[in-house]
Amino acid sequence: xxQLVESGGDLVHPGGSLRLSCAAxxxxxxxxxxxxxRQAPGKQRELVARITxxxxxxxxxxxxxxxxxxxxxxxxxVYLQMNRLKPEDTAVYYCNARLSLPLRxxxxxxxxxxxxxxx
Length: 119
Known about the structure:
The chain is mostly beta strands. It contains no helices and 11 strands. The strands form 2 sheets. Strands 2, 4, 5, 6, 9, 10 and 11 form a 7-stranded mixed sheet that branches. A 4-stranded antiparallel sheet has the order 1-3-8-7, with no helix packed on it. β5 and β6 form a beta hairpin.
């Protein structure tokens, strides 16, 4: 069992920056990967960025070069640094943790945090 607590969502002007945080607790030793997804009104949830336990990363083409995912193992926390934000980035952002268990994988989700980019 893993619990995820998110923070950092806000209203920001185009071109601005935000930093999202996701703190994990519980069976953190079983986490294989953590990532950020987002869902805009009328659209399906999509992957934004992911980082594995080995340190490899993956980004959506729409955010590559602007967003950076990172982790702090001492704090059991993953971050999403978002720079040069655009109105198209407006969405609810969800933290995800994927656990690798003996015979299966399990996914856990944060409650979501609202990011709004508007002038």
